[in-house]
């Protein structure tokens, strides 16, 4: 008898049905959160040059995107406003206006498509003239506690408009507990908090800053509040704090370069973990496709599966619409 390997791991890979049967991870449209940019105007679609295939939509158009997302089986939409220049200020007060672009979009979406979740970003950068996520002192430092107070008001403003998930992306200390307390105090018991718990000061956010119009405004960098890419233990401490303060789920951002963080957070805490495949990652993938380095559909699905395999409950991705269409076929 000729010798043979005791175990042939190729056996279960030999046919498509068997590969399907043995898949350890599944990816469905319900795993996707679709980040969408909103702008003033009516019937408006403004393409974003550094994010090919992504546009800013007017409030009437965002409703159409909401219906499209629902029909594709996408679970949730994330909204980001491009505030008109004349409404931006040092203190970002427009974030607290109950009729700002964000609140109008939330109301329109919840009216027209109540079946879909609406996640809203809490941070001041789309509203400030300096492009920072918080209030800046004379030395240019983003002050923590006064910013947290403003973020509480911003979160309440969004919750009153109908936001389902408050997602603070600012990285101030203590803001999750403060926001949770304020939401409970006003009776928003089932409004969730998805904390951007481990958010890194990353070079991958450039196209997003174009999309919300803060790129040219930003003074300096965000390294005094966003995390250093060298650090992983610190990410676990950030997550532990946000969970202790009442976060329902936590996010790691950016995505692919930080899958080690996703996996460690999932293993350590066993809570819902999300990742944000950010604008620079999207642009990088699209550039690779344009350069003939790979095939878009396969790259998109492989990338998103990697997030699930690492332990994500879901992924924020600008490819959500496209991926959901591929998965629904
Ligand atoms: C800011 C915010 C950023 C993103 C989401 N919220 C950028 C930043 O921190 O400067 C980036 C998302 C992306 O790049 O797709 N509060």
From TrEMBL:
It catalyses: 2 5-aminolevulinate = porphobilinogen + 2 H2O + H(+). Its EC number is 4.2.1.24. SMART domains: ALAD. The keyword Lyase applies. InterPro entries: ALAD (IPR001731), ALAD_AS (IPR030656), Aldolase_TIM (IPR013785). Belongs to the ALAD family. NCBIfam families: PRK09283.1. This is Delta-aminolevulinic acid dehydratase.
């Amino acid at each position: 008898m000729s010798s043979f390997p005791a175990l042939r791991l190729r056996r279960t890979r030999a046919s498509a049905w068997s590969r399907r049967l043995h898949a350890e991870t599944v990816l469905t449209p319900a795993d996707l959160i679709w980040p969408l940019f909103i702008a003033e105007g009516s019937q408006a679609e403004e393409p974003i040059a550094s994010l090919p295939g992504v546009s800013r939509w007017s409030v009437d158009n965002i409703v159409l995107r909401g219906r499209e997302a629902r029909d594709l089986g996408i679970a949730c939409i994330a909204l980001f406003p491009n505030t008109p220049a004349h409404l931006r200020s040092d203190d970002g007060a427009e974030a607290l206006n109950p009729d700002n672009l964000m609140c109008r979009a939330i109301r329109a979406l919840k009216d027209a498509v109540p079946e879909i979740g609406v996640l809203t970003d809490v941070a001041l950068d789309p509203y400030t003239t300096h492009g920072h996520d918080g209030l800046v002192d004379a030395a240019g430092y983003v002050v923590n506690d006064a910013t947290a107070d403003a973020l509480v008001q911003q979160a309440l403003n969004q919750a009153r408009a109908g936001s389902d998930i408050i997602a603070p992306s600012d990285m101030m200390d203590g803001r999750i507990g403060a926001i949770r307390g304020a939401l409970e105090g006003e009776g928003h018991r089932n409004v969730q908090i998805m904390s951007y718990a481990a958010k890194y000061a990353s070079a991958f956010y450039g196209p997003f800053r174009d999309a919300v119009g803060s790129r040219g405004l930003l003074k300096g960098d965000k390294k005094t509040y966003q995390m250093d890419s060298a650090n992983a233990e610190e990410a676990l401490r950030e997550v532990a704090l946000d969970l202790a303060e009442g976060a329902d789920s936590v996010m790691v951002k950016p995505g692919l370069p930080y899958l080690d963080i996703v996996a460690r957070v999932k293993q350590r805490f066993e809570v819902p973990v999300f990742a944000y495949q950010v604008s620079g990652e999207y642009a990088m993938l699209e550039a690779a496709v344009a350069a003939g380095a790979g095939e878009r559909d396969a790259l998109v699905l492989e990338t998103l599966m990697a997030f699930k395999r690492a332990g994500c409950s879901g992924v924020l991705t600008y490819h959500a619409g496209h991926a959901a269409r591929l998965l629904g076929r």
